[in-house]
């Protein structure tokens, strides 16, 4: 049975294909369109999923869309009526898009999937989030908490899941949203909403939470159970394209920062304050969910679950014994989630539990790939000088190059699913060199200097280097570094790192490379950052990967078994 999941029209459009409940292909539309965070209907992603699996639209049993467009449209109309006459400009900009296309998403699906005669369903937004986090977990039963900007009306939901049943029993509704609260500060501090929230998290490490009390007193009322009520006097997202208004600016005594202007101490302190408020809200929520469900496991989903600092505090301070977060907890991941909901909850198919390593492989490394033959053909056709190395020699040579201070692009196997490069479309470097983070930011990534880099570590050495006692295969926890003197390039200003653990079972080639570096340096860690430059999605094609070595100061590119030195 083939099940297709689709997410689009907000941000991070994507498509995912399941065969008998197993993810066999999943990819974001941006990887093809080259428009970062692309929100358009994912035509290319859908076509690739079908082609990759060797089927056509006629072979699909069913299709799921990640939310209910009619309910979302209803919320938009109700909101504009409520705030009128404010919001006219926003209304005239937004509503035509919905009337002409977004409300009729079923027609768009059927138009693209010619010959499809199966079932189409539309789970609610937070149900898709819930399904994705639960059905990628190793748990048979679990409490569930989903937190994001907004779905249809819901901004936060919690409940429980057992076998193939998901029940969300409680929610917080528009406009009172933890995700939009954080996005408001993202906008105010000069970053793009739905894109730059992780930058805000990184910026917060440079400041002190001086404005915590000011925020809690004026902007948000937080109850003991974590429920929130935003003071809409300060927010403009219900009637404008920007998130905050003059009252918000007056409260902090500054205007919104321009995107390319220098950040000052007040920006760092505001970021630190907003981050701390977010953490306190989520901790209260988690404690309440535990009290209400009485379960030992928690599955966390929604875009807010990308905040690794919050996740670490939930892991360390929360009441649950076990915590699971999927590789793509935001809207892109909901393409998988809605398909999983359709297969397990709607169709009532029995769930097949997988071993942890198998589950990681099946939920991450499911994107486009290129064989050695395809790589060689590309290199020969473009007269690119290259060297072929057998795998053992390739690993030894690459590890040595990194140990000598070279920056290496690592393009291997199937592209990762989700927002993080997890060892197949990565740029790798030596974490022992403190200057390497500046080299990578300025000469390779072309991005803000305050942005940290992630370490990838052999799983068996995790507790030696980081204060965390569970694997972090999806790079979703920010943990304190125990040996910052050994890995200064991946130690953030506050002594933490957003880490990835790598095991032999989940990604053998990547694991063996880190192990070779460990043999040379006695450090089982590499810098891992995504293979892209600022403003661009992670590379997809061979040409895009090769352009990285042309456009940046990257020293080497390793594609399959072929090494290319910067010309």
Description of the molecule:
With 567 residues, this protein is of the alpha/beta class. Helix 3 (69-83) runs antiparallel to helix 4 (88-100) and helix 16 packs across helix 19 (508-521). The mean pLDDT is 95. The radius of gyration is 23 Å and the shape is globular. Strands 13-21-20-14-15-19-16-18-17 form a nine-stranded mixed β-sheet, sandwiched between helices. The chain is 38% helix and 19% strand.
Topology overview:
Blueprint (H helix, E strand, L loop, with lengths): L1 E6 L6 E6 L2 E7 L1 H4 L9 H11 L6 E6 L3 H15 L4 H13 L4 H8 L6 E3 L3 H11 L5 E7 L6 E9 L2 E9 L4 H11 L8 H8 L7 H7 L1 E3 L5 E3 L15 H7 L12 H29 L3 E5 L6 H10 L4 E3 L9 H13 L9 H9 L7 H10 L5 E2 L2 H13 L4 E4 L13 E5 L6 H10 L8 E5 L3 H4 L11 E4 L15 E7 L5 H14 L3 E6 L11 H10 L4 E4 L2 E4 L2
Parallel strand pairs: 1-4, 4-5, 6-11, 11-12, 14-20, 16-18
Antiparallel strand pairs: 1-2, 2-3, 6-7, 7-8, 9-10, 13-21, 14-15, 15-19, 16-19, 17-18, 20-21
Helix pairs in contact: 3-4, 6-13, 7-11, 8-11, 11-12, 16-19
| Total tally of structural domains | 3
SS elements, strand count: 21
Helix segment tally = 20
Whole-angstrom Rg:
23 Å
CATH architecture of the largest domain: Alpha-Beta Complex
Uncertain runs: none
Question: Span from first to last CA?
Answer: 48 Å
Which class best fits the helix and strand makeup?
alpha/beta
Mean pLDDT: 95
* The CATH class of the largest domain: Alpha Beta
Spatial sequence of strands, sheet with the most strands: 13-21-20-14-15-19-16-18-17
CATH topology description of the largest domain: DHBP synthase
Give the name of the CATH superfamily of the largest domain: Carbamoyltransferase, C-terminal domain
Strand content: 15-25%
Coarse shape: globular
Report the biggest beta sheet as strand number plus sense, adding barrel if it closes.
9 strands, mixed
Helix content: 25-40%
